[in-house]
Batch of 2 targets.
Target 1
Amino acid sequence: MLSRREDCRNTLKKNMSTKRLKNIEVEQIANLHNKYIDTGFLSTLGIPFLKLIYQLMNNSNNAFYLIEVEDGKIVGFVSGVISIRGFYKEFFKKNFIKGTVYLLPKLLKPVTMRKTLETLFYPAKKENDLPDAELLSIVVEENYQGKGVARKLFIKLVDEFKTRGVFRFKVVVGSNLIAACRFYEKMGGVYDSETEVHKGEKSRVYKWDLMNERS
Ligand SMILES: CC(C)(COP(=O)(O)OP(=O)(O)OC[C@H]1O[C@@H](n2cnc3c(N)ncnc32)[C@H](O)[C@@H]1OP(=O)(O)O)[C@@H](O)C(=O)NCCC(=O)NCCS
C-alpha cells in the first residue's frame, strides 16, 4: 500500500523520475515558504537556501515535510523537526559548502549576521521545559485558504510525530501573525509564553501534549 506522501507524489506527475519529482516538490515548497512566510528570517536568506533546507528534510531523521496537492500542484505544506539542534548540525554537515556560499554574501549585512546567530543559538536557550520537537512551518496558498487545508496538514503532522514516537511538540510563531496564532489555538495549542527569537520581535510559543489526547 502507498503511503500518503507517495500517493501525493504520484498525483503530482506519474511519469517523472523520483529525483526530478523531489526537486519540483522542494522548489514549490521553497517558493510557498518564501511568499507566505515573508516576515520570517529564513525567507530573507533566499529561495536557494530554503531549497537546501527542504531538500534535507526530505531525507532526514531529524525533520520532515508533508504536502497537500490539488490539481497536480502543491497548495500547502507543513514541516516538523524532531530536534532543531540535530537538524542544524545535519544541515551544516551535509551542506557546508553550498550553505556557506549562499549565506556568506548575506552575512555581510550585520542585521542578517545577528539574526542568523540568534536563530542558531535559540534552541540552546532552554527557558523552560519546552519540547524539542517543533512545527517549523505551515503554509497554504491563498486561493486555498479557509477551506480546511491547514487543518488536514496539521492532522497529518500529528500522525507523523506519533509514528516517530514524538508526543510533545511546540511552535514558535510571530505574535503579529494573527491568522497563524488563531489557527494554532484552534488546533488545540496551549499558549506557553512570549519570547524573542530575534531582538525586539515578539513571538508566541504554543505547545501540544499528545499523551493528553483521548482517541
Ligand atoms: C495560517 C494558515 C496556514 C491557515 O491555513 P488555512 O488552510 O486557511 O486554515 P484552515 O482553513 O484549515 O483553518 C482551520 C482553523 O484555523 C482558524 N483560522 C484559519 N485562518 C484564520 C484566520 N485568517 N483568522 C482567524 N482564524 C483562522 C480557524 O479557526 C479555522 O477553523 P474554522 O474553519 O472552523 O473557523 C494560512 O493562513 C497561511 O498559510 N498563512 C500564511 C503563512 C503563515 O503565517 N504560516 C504560519 C507561520 S509558520
Target 2
Amino acid sequence: MNVQHHKLLRCGVLCVWIALCGLAVPADSFAGVHAPLDAAGLVRAQETDARLTHGPVIGGVTSQGAVIFVRTDSPATVAIRYATSPDMTGAQTSETRATAEDADMTALVPLNGLAAGTEYFIDALVNDVVAADSAARFKTFPTEDSQAALQFAITTDFGAYGEGDQPPLDTPTNTFRQIDAANPDFVFIGGDFDHRNPHTLDEKRQMFKDLYSPDNPRAPMPEFVPLILRRYPVAHQWDDHDFYDNDADRTAPGRSFAAQAFREFFPTYPLPNNGALYQSFRYGQNDFFILDNRYFRDPNHETPSRSKSMLDGEDLKKAGQLAWLKRRLKQSNARWKIIFSSSVFNLSTRKSDSWVPFPREHDAIVNFVRTNNIKNVIVISGDIHAGALDNGTNAGLPNVVAPGPNLKYCFTVPQDWPGTWSNGIYGSSKNVDNAIPCNGFGLVKLTERAAKIRILDTEGKTKLKMNIKWQP
Ligand SMILES: [Fe+2]
C-alpha cells in the first residue's frame, strides 16, 4: 500500500468514526499536534494529519528578523507563532510556507519586523495547529550602530556514531551544556557538522535529520537540540566531510546535492546565486564573513599556479567568492571583522587539507588586509580536531581553532605537524590514532577595546586564552 492510499484510508476510517459517534476526539489522538476536533473539525482532522518532525532551527538572525527551519512528515502548511513573553500572550503569526516532497518536507519561514535586541518565544504551526514540542526562543541582534559587547560560541567537527571517517562514540559530551551555560549571543556551527561523507541527496538530508533529532542514536549528544538549536541563533558553514568526502573540492560529484540539502535544511543569511554557500551578517558594530571553503576549491594536490584558488577555483573573478571577501572587507566599517574559514589559516600546521596548498592566495589575503589598512580581522577555523590560538604572528592574521564537541580522537594531523601557535595548542597529536580526546568549544567576546578568546574543554575549563587589543 502506498503512503497516499494509506493516508486516505486512515482518514476515511477516522472521518466515518467521528461522524458515526459524534464524539470529540482528544487532542492527543494525533501524535505531534494538539488538534481539538469536533463535528466541524472533520476537515481539520484530515489537514492535521501532518506532524512536525524537525525544528524549529533558528538562523539568519538580524536586528529585525530571523529565518526558522521546520520539517513535517507529509505535505502541510507551516507558520511560526512568535511573542515576547513565554506564555505567548499577544503572539503574532508569520506568513505561511508549504512543505512538499520535492524539498523533503522542509520549509524556511521568515520572521520580519522584529524588534532589535529582544527575546522572542516561538512555536510552529502545522496546518494552523500548534505542534507539540516546538517551543523555542532566541534573541534578535542589536541595531547595527550598537556598541554592545557580544559573545559567541564556536562548535565544529561533530562526531557521529560510526559514520564515514568517524569511529564509534561511546561517551556523551557535556560540551553543549557548557555552551548553554555561557549563554552566548549566537552559536557558530563549523564544518564537518558530522563526518559521514554524504554522497547523495538522501544521505545529506539524513545527516541534518539525525543532527536535528534529540534522541539520535547515531550521535549521542541529546543536549544539542534542546540546549543549542532551541535557544540560540545559529550560523553554519560546511567542510569536507559534510560536503562530500575527505579533502573534497569543487570536482566532488555530489556538490550540487550537498548544496541543495544545505539550502533546504539550514536557515542561512542571503546566499550568492553562483551555487556556493558563503554568507555575511552583522551583529552591532561587528561584521562576520562565513566562507565556503569547498564549493569552488581547486584540488589540494593541483600543481601550484597563479590561478590555483580555494575560494575562486572556477575563476569567477568579480562574481566570485574571493572578490566578494576582499570587497566586503574593504567596505566594512565594523569594529571587528570576523572571517570563518573552516580550513586552518596558519600555514605552519603543514596540513595538506588547509590553506597550506594555497600559499599564494593565503598571502594575497593577508597582504590585501595590510595594504588596505584593514584592521581588527580575526580568522576562525576548525578541522584539526583540536584547539589552537595564534595572534597573527604565525598565521598572518589572528587564527582561532576550535576543537570538536564529542570526538573520540584528538588531531587530524601527524605528530610533528600541529604547527606554531603563539597562544598554544589544546590537545596532543602524539600517536594520533590513540590520543586521548581533546574536545570542547570556543568562546569569543568582542568589546570595543578587545577580542577575548578562549578555548574550553567539555567541562567548561579554559584550556587556552588570547586577548587581542582593538586597533584604532
Ligand atoms: Fe573534521
